[in-house]
Amino acid sequence: AQSVTQLDSQVPVFEEAPVELRCNYSSSVSVYLFWYVQYPNQGLQLLLKYLSGSTLVKGINGFEAEFNKSQTSFHLRKPSVHISDTAEYFCAVSPNNAGNMLTFGGGTRLMVKP
Amino acid sequence: DTAVSQTPKYLVTQMGNDKSIKCEQNLGHDTMYWYKQDSKKFLKIMFSYNNKELIINETVPNRFSPKSPDKAHLNLHINSLELGDSAVYFCASSSGGMNTEAFFGQGTRLTVV
């Protein structure tokens, strides 16, 4: 079984400031890792994913994440946020031996202030 | 052209009723899913289905059942609706294999009164 913990339920930040959204996971098997974004009243959109290879993954909208196996973390970062980045962000994992059944964290609401 | 579409977008119904939510994907994916997002935004897998196998999250009540008339559709049937079923239900699909990105629909907000 897998579990995902997003340590911050809300992250307020001023526009153009850097941000980091934290994600830790636990799993008895190897996993793939994902970050999804949910804008108000919308479905989920994939920001980035880690399957294998380089531990630094770049995604859409200027986001990146770094996989740290020893710390079982997959933190999401952006060097300069925009008002339009205000949304709910979900970290998720899926076991790499059994399809794509995602286990999600509780979400982090990013609130970008002018 | 919408990749994963769900209907209806909103559904308000009384306790005890039976309802269905439809999902269609035009991505040619082999596997489809249903997720439930509760009022605290927590997302949980309910079902995973391809033409070979249905995987059910053991916590899902048997009042919930997926029905797949063909590879492009996975409908969700819910019998004897309860207040606690109120949530947003998301359909998703993926191709499986190494490219494990799941594409999500816009969600169906179910309110049981």
* Helix proportion of chain A: under 10%
Mean pLDDT of chain A: 93
- Measure the end-to-end span of chain A: 41 Å
Radius of gyration of chain A: 13 Å
Structural class computed from helices and strand pairing of chain B: mainly beta
Strand content of chain B: over 45%
Number of helices of chain A: 0
Total number of strands of chain B = 11
Taken in chain order, the helices and strands of chain B follow as: EEEEEEEEEEE
The pLDDT mean of chain B sits at 91
What is the N-to-C order of secondary-structure elements of chain A (H for helix, E for strand)?
Answer: EEEEEEEEEEEE
The level of helicity of chain B is under 10%
Note the overall shape of chain B.
globular
Q: What percentage of the residues of chain A does DSSP assign to strands (E)?
A: over 45%
> Got a strand count of chain A?
12
The computed structural class of chain A is mainly beta
Greatest chain-chain interface? A-B, 25 and 25 residues
Characterize the quaternary organization of these chains.
heterodimer
Question: Which stretches of chain B of 5+ consecutive residues score pLDDT under 50?
Answer: none
| Number of discrete helical segments of chain B | 0
